[in-house]
Design a protein that fits this description.
Blueprint lengths: L8 H12 L5 E2 H8 L3 H13 L3 E5 L11 E5 L1 H11 L3 H8 L5
Antiparallel strand pairs: 1-3, 2-3
């Protein structure tokens, strides 16, 4: 049986932010700034998501003069599906919020 792990909160935040951008491209630096996460957290997440086919990557074409081209990221169809699934509340979590635990 294959075990499916839920993504870390940081990975879920990256997926959610990319989902909010829709089909548009995002830059890693912008994701760091929006999420308040360091590059050492965001870029490894983006690499893992790209390796799993959840994020599409591309080099920026025609960068402004005086700066190098940047890598761009956006969700693939599979990544968008995962982001939607993560945004939906799970029944177990919904019950946990409604029914207090007794100890």
């Amino acid at each position: 049986m294959v075990r499916v792990r839920r993504p870390s909160p940081q990975t879920a935040a990256v997926l959610s932010t990319l989902a909010a951008a829709g089909a548009g491209w995002s830059h890693g630096y912008d994701l760091c700034r929006v999420l308040g996460l360091k590059a050492g957290t965001v870029y490894p997440i983006l690499i893992r998501l790209a390796e799993r086919g959840l994020v599409e990557t591309s080099w920026e074409t025609g960068p402004p003069r005086g700066r190098p081209a940047r890598h761009r990221y956006r969700l693939s169809p599979d990544g968008a599906e995962l982001a939607r699934a993560l945004a939906e509340p799970s029944p177990a979590r919904a019950v946990a919020r409604v029914v207090p635990r007794t100890t």
